[in-house]
Design brief:
Blueprint: H1 3-9, H2 23-33, E1 45-51, H3 52-68, H4 88-102, H5 110-118, E2 128-135, H6 140-159, E3 163-167, H7 174-181, E4 187-196, H8 212-215
Antiparallel strand pairs: 1-2, 2-4, 3-4
Length: about 220
């Protein structure tokens, strides 16, 4: 699989089979992803690769919190601005319409939307997950470095025939994850990433992208 194919075929998959992801594959991917760029080579990512009993325990504890209506954890970072301006507001709305429309969930079906969202904390059935942390003393440039690292991981997973889904949703249950992983206090959970083999029988559409002229300006000369 060449780079263009990996980029074109990568998408947020939200339905996985229970087929195991071999440890050696995760090690190969994460070893290669360490070459992702970062300013002054800080390499600000701290990643936990979780499978087996440990991941099952995280899923179980998250499910128990959902079942009892336990509120989300106090956020440690702002996922979106309080008021998204155009065109980001419209893009987010279009994503929601497509996502829930694919599942046959109407806009007014609040319970159905909550039920679909809760699948995040089961990793959509994936047998492997990453939990990516960053030191709370670092700044915005280092957060962007973590994003480049995660994209590198996802493209390498495609080269291995695997799919993934990054999930800021796990930051809402960061205490639950910490109960199992025991990360140092100086780390913030940025996101989780579900990893596995796609369940091709599931109904899981792909969102589109803005036209090139909406996001790119070519400049040639003065």
């Amino acid at each position: 699989m060449d780079v263009y194919e990996a980029v074109a075929s990568r998408r947020a998959v939200r339905a996985f089979t229970d087929r195991d992801v071999p440890r050696e594959v995760l090690e190969r991917v994460l070893s290669a992803a360490a070459w992702a760029p970062s300013a002054s080579n800080l390499q600000p990512w701290h990643t936990y690769a979780v499978t087996g009993v440990a991941l099952a325990e995280i899923k179980k504890r998250a499910a128990e919190r959902l079942a009892t209506g336990d509120p989300w954890d106090e956020p440690e970072y702002e996922q979106y601005p309080p008021a998204l301006k155009s065109p980001y507001r419209e893009r987010r709305s279009a994503f929601g319409e497509q996502r829930y429309g694919t599942l046959g969930i109407a806009r007014e079906d609040t319970e159905g939307r909550q039920r679909a969202a809760s699948a995040n904390w089961g990793c959509f059935g994936a047998p492997a997950a990453l939990f990516c942390y960053i030191d709370r003393d670092l700044g915005r440039p280092q957060w962007s470095d973590v994003g480049m690292y995660l994209q590198t991981v996802m493209l390498l997973l495609r080269a291995e025939g695997l799919h993934s889904c990054t999930q800021m949703a796990w930051a809402k249950f960061h205490r639950t994850v910490a109960e199992v992983l025991s990360p140092p206090d100086e780390l913030i959970l940025f996101c989780g990433m579900s990893i596995g083999f796609e369940d091709a029988t599931a109904c899981d559409g792909r969102t589109g992208r803005a036209p090139l002229d909406e996001t790119v300006t070519f400049v040639d000369g003065l």
